[in-house]
Write the structure tokens for this entry.
Amino acid sequence: MQLIQFLNQRRQVQLIWSCISVLIGALICTGVHAQNAVPSGKDPAAEAANQAPTYLRDIQPIFMGSCSRCHNQQSRFIYDWLDYKTAYADRWEIRRRIWDSWKGSYYKEAMPVANSPESLALTEEERSTIMKWVDEGGLRGVPPPAGAARSKAERIEFGRRLFTSVCAACHQPTGRGLPNVFPPLAGSDYLNANKNRAIQTVIFGRQGEVVVNGQKFNNSMPSFPLTDENIADVLTFVYNSFGNSGLEVTPEEVKALRSQRPASSGSTAPAGTPAAKSTFE
């Protein structure tokens, strides 16, 4: 009788351990499945925000929108921050001027110059990004993947984003420019009269006097490090905004005009001189 009771108790213990083993196995499988479903276990947006800033992805777009009027390849006495090698070499001075001077801890004038359109457009977040880029090594990185527009509507949308980040500081979000400083793009006779000239102006920049809507402007527009796709997008946006003619610009048109420099661009280089490439291209 005692032997039978002992065997029954032993079977109960074995059954309990079998149930516990099954439960532990189920919990392990559930955990593995959850890890496979979300490999990092983190919010992708938060991970992207925590990445170290890089020049091509984060910094050059800021420089194009807020620094390029002075810091460009046409400038004779000011460093060209649109070129990575130059910006990297000058990165600590950039940090001091854009962050420390702005905070009042560096004696030289803050950049962009106080109360300028670029200074008013530069946000604290952008200043902080530049500071972080310098502090974390001034990485070059790679440019963000370019999205190829599949329709005119997509090209306009891509161009709108680029216009907002690069062009609006000077030409204003309304496209009306600033009187006696930056010419208007809104209803621009200069823009609508000659599409090829407009494309070449964005490719090569322009220096010297220009007459737009009956008003004279004598300022400089730098040559931006934009791709053919970028230029096609932003010009298509401008042509289809601000009361302009509604034209579309294609990357193929930009590529064809990039091989020659117009004599009227205001550049000192002879006509037909190819655009100078960065040593990092």
Observations:
- Strands lie at 206-212, 215-221.
- Residues 26-40, 265-281 have pLDDT under 50 and may be disordered.
